[in-house]
Amino acid sequence: MRSLEERIKVGDLDLIIRQEFEKRGINPKNSKFKFHYGIWSNEKNVMIIEDGHYVYDGFDNKPPVPTYNTSSLYNPDNSVPVFHNAKVPPGELRVYFPNRTNIILSSLWKNATGTALFAAIILSCFAYTLTVIFRQKKLSEMKTDFINNMTHEFKTPIATISLASDSIVSPMILSNPEKVQRFANIIKQENKRMNSQVEKVLQMALLDKRDFSLKLTELNLHEIIQAAVENISLRVEKRDGVVKTILNASRPSIEGDLTHVANVINNLLDNADKYSPDKPEITVITRNISNGVEVTVQDNGIGISKEARKQIFDKFYRVPTGNLHDVKGFGLGLSYVKAMMTAHKGSVEVKSEPGKGSSFVLTFPFQVEA
Ligand code: ADP
Fold it and tell me: Whose C-alpha lies nearest to ligand 1, atom 25?
């Protein structure tokens, strides 16, 4: 029987292999699909043909002298028996792709990027959903706090008014005009307090509508500040505190809405008083800046931590210590201030050192409309 090398013509083998590969879309001219092939002889246990050349001289049982770098073909990617009709196939055709890893990687690359992208989208959706849920949860907690606070804020004056009116109608008091006067005053005070609470809630409702319009007129900030300071000094002085003004602005006139600008100053003074547990020392300073007036409301109160400073202008936000000190509030004052300053094309900034005090700096431009 003819030996394997006699039965295989290297030229034909080369042609057949290339044709078959091309039929299957494997173009050996493309460096990616470069391949080596060879015929392994089962009888001689060596490669006898490689890449279209006989590599074994076949004589004298000498060891094979490879003319090519054959090592790879001993570890082929694919091998099939040749002349497989024979009882014992005399050898096998082996094929080796040196760039196999690259081919696999390049085909995997697209899938892998797709998968990574998909995973990233899913993860970011998940993260987004989580943040929305947490934000909603926080908002809902804040709203519950707000409702609790509001109920509390209304309950106290209602109870006081009820007590005072009960007392007035008692014969003992009725006969004493001084006492009647005193209780009537209490009723008036409490009524005023409730009114200011309603005013605050209304301020916020107004902001929610977003279509509020400013009634712009020429305002003298110094006059507004003086009036607001006068308003609060009674309360502050009762606690042995002081309210000072350092009105340095030589041009204190700005364009603005009187009600809202007055509310802004009142809110800041109110907070300066509320969040100063010991004798409050409140200072209002004004100065002219390049295109307007800067108003600083400074206190020596509890101060605001860095973390809280980021959130105090959010609606319903209250620093937890605010509750700890049993200071009443809705968490609306500063968000109103911020919204109003934006509407006036100005700004509000806070500087604070916990335990030492806070300064709220307002900047009003001379003109709202440029
Ligand atoms: P409220 O006073 O009704 O709680 P605000 O919106 O006016 O709501 O203020 C938000 C939070 O900012 C307050 O709960 C308080 O903790 C903090 N804060 C505001 N002003 C001051 C201040 N001058 N000193 C210390 N903390 C302040």
Answer: 303
pLDDT tens for residues 79-134? 888 887 878 888 889 888 888 777 778 878 888 899 999 999 999 999 999 999 99
| Nearest partner of 275 among 313, 203, 326, judged by Cα | 326
Query: Could you tell me the pTM of the whole model?
Result: 0.61
With a 6 Å cutoff on the Cβ, whether 280 touches ligand 1 is no
Could you tell me the distance, in angstroms and rounded to a whole number, from the CA of residue 215 to the centre of ligand 1?
27
pLDDT digits (tens, 9 = 90+) for 2-48: 778 788 888 888 889 888 888 888 887 777 788 888 888 888 888 88
Q: Are 257 and 214 in contact (CB under 8 A)?
A: yes
> d(Cα 36, Cα 51) in Å, to the nearest integer?
6
Out of 266, 268, 271, 310, give the residue to mutate to test ligand 1, the one with the largest number of ligand atoms within 8 Å of its CB: 271
Residue from 316, 343, 347, 309 nearest 330 by CA? 316
SS3 label, residue 231 = helix
State whether the beta carbon of 318 lies less than 6 angstroms from ligand 1.
yes
Spell 140-160 as b/e; 16+ CB within 10 A means b: eebeebbeebbeebeeebeeb
* Upper half-sphere CA count for residue 341 (Cβ side, 13 Å): 24
Q: What is the dihedral of CA 64, 65, 71, 76, to 10 degrees?
A: -50
